[in-house]
Design brief:
heterodimer; A: mainly alpha; B: Rossmann fold; six-stranded mixed sheet; four-stranded antiparallel sheet; 10 strands; globular
């Protein structure tokens, strides 16, 4: 039971990160391999804001995603928009290359050993079957709220309708008078801000280090594939679900806990190549 | 024409390397209903797409209300007041009927209200919560027309609204198009079915090989039926 709860904490990060990836992929048709680096940048932004300007965690929760999201907007305007008409491979090379450069720069400046970030909420909460650090409980709830808010924004609002329509047929949406290139820029900014937000939430749990996103994002890509590329609800459900499965595996067969997600991915791909919630194109 | 809402002159367009339009010229007066007739591949759809700015590689001149639109992206052209209903209808499957209707943003004051549109298309009201692509072909066509009436666009570009529809639905679409003209919309209609076109339009331009080769007013269609049939190869 305790492992299940901790699995949910991991699942919260999987869900937030795969959600950002899904939003970006749906609209830009680019798999954002810079996602892990942007997650790390979110954590670093919070850490630097605290260390240099004494900005508290709660303010960073808003500021860091804004700063990193803005960085994403600049990246999109400057680089990504030039490759939409090219093969997927170029998107992969560009975003992967950017991730290496960003992580390299952070490593060069701050090393790779990592720095601690003080937990903004201390103490534990008795859940009956275990005592869970209150901050981790907060992370799970916060992630759920963020994911559902994003889902609502995309599935139930006017702006979300533009996004969904532009994902299907950007040419026609543009011919209706909507500035689709700007919509794409905003979407990338939003996806990147989601990664950064996850990074801020992760800072007090993990060490803030240049490579903190690398391992995590590997699992997240598996989550996205299992959930179905570009599916919003798919990535939320799969994110939390796989966190749980990972937690359970730790209880029953610990050596497999690192690979179980990839086993699930292989199985899903065999049965449903478009992913659990994906629609074959 | 003194009061031409849309004036196309020497319009050329390319898809990649292939040159599709070779100097198209025609005019649509305010409140007029004009068709582009011609065989498959004559360049009718490309003309609409070029007017709309969807075909980006174009040269020549397209003025709407006296303003040049060539060189501007399609979203800017749409915001000047042109509504586009594509041949493939372009109903969004991830949106329900009402979301489809509400999708195109209002570009000018004076568009029809949602209630008026539902009054014109009662079927859409009944199915407003259905996924857009679950509608029948005729209903999808009505949805594709309905959603550009809300925006305040004064010029409607309709690309083969009767294609693939049963005769009774074609008749219904014809009534709707006449009603829209009655409401003051200016309409540029692309049609293969010239019997249908003759019943709704004021004038017809005939296209061949990427050029406009002839023009006739609806009253003269009967006299020129032989010539028209030769153009259209029917």
């Amino acid at each position: 039971m305790a492992q299940v709860a901790l699995g949910l904490v991991n699942g919260a990060f999987y869900a937030m990160l795969s959600l950002g990836l899904a939003v970006i992929f749906g609209m830009l048709n680019v798999i954002n391999f810079t996602h892990g680096a942007q997650f790390m940048m979110g954590a670093f932004a919070a850490w630097l804001l605290l260390g240099m300007l004494d900005v508290p965690f709660w303010a960073s929760l808003v500021l860091a995603p804004l700063i990193v999201g803005l960085f994403g907007v600049i990246i999109e305007r400057l680089l990504l928009k030039r490759i939409y008409h090219l093969d997927h491979l170029y998107g992969f090379l560009l975003t992967f290359g950017m991730a290496l450069i960003i992580e390299g720069l952070f490593q060069w400046k701050w090393g790779s050993s990592g720095a601690p970030y003080p937990a903004p909420i201390t103490g534990g909460t008795d859940l009956g079957f275990m005592i869970m650090p209150t901050y981790r409980l907060f992370v799970v709830v916060a992630a759920l709220v963020i994911c559902l808010a994003t889902w609502y924004g995309i599935e139930r609002t006017r702006l979300g309708a533009y996004l969904r329509a532009a994902t299907e047929n950007p040419t026609l949406v543009r011919a209706f008078g909507i500035n689709v290139p700007r919509l794409i820029t905003l979407t990338y900014g939003l996806g990147v801000a989601l990664a950064a937000l996850a990074g801020v939430l992760a800072a007090p749990i993990q060490q803030v280090s240049a490579l903190m996103g690398t391992n995590l994002v590997l699992v997240v890509f598996a989550v996205v594939v299992i959930g179905g590329m570009g599916s919003i609800m798919g990535s939320i459900v799969t994110g939390f679900g796989l966190g749980l499965i990972e937690g359970l595996t730790k209880v029953y067969y610990p050596p497999a806990s690192n690979t179980v997600i990839f086993v699930v991915m292989a199985l899903v791909l065999l049965v449903k190549p478009a992913g659990l919630f994906g629609q074959a194109k | 024409m003194a009061d031409a809402l849309l004036k196309v002159a020497g319009l050329q367009a390319w898809y990649g390397e292939s040159h599709i339009l070779h100097g198209v010229g025609f005019e649509v007066g305010r409140g007029e209903l004009v068709t582009l007739l011609g065989r498959n591949g004559a360049g009718k759809t490309t003309t609409l797409k070029s007017v709309m700015g969807i075909v980006e590689k174009r040269a020549g001149s397209v003025t709407f209300e006296g303003r040049e639109t060539v060189g501007h992206p399609s979203d800017e052209i749409a915001r000047q007041g042109i509504g586009y209903c594509p041949e493939e209808r372009g109903i969004f499957s991830s949106l329900n009927v009402e979301e489809n209707l509400l999708l195109p943003p209002a570009v000018k004051a004076g568009g029809m209200s949602l209630a008026e549109i539902y009054q014109l298309f009662p079927n859409l009201w009944e199915r407003r919560r259905s996924q857009g692509t679950k509608l029948s072909g005729g209903e999808q066509q009505m949805l594709a027309i309905g959603r550009i009436l809300r925006t305040g666009a004064t010029l409607l570009l309709l690309d083969e609204p009767t294609e693939g529809l049963a005769p009774v639905i074609v008749q219904r679409i014809g009534e709707i198009i006449r009603q829209l003209k009655g409401r003051g919309f200016t309409i540029l209609l692309v049609e293969q079915n010239f019997h249908f076109a003759a019943t709704v339009a004021d004038r017809h331009y005939v296209m061949e090989d990427g050029k406009v080769v002839d023009m006739m007013v609806s009253a003269d269609v009967q006299q020129n039926i032989g010539k028209l049939q030769a153009y259209l190869g029917v």
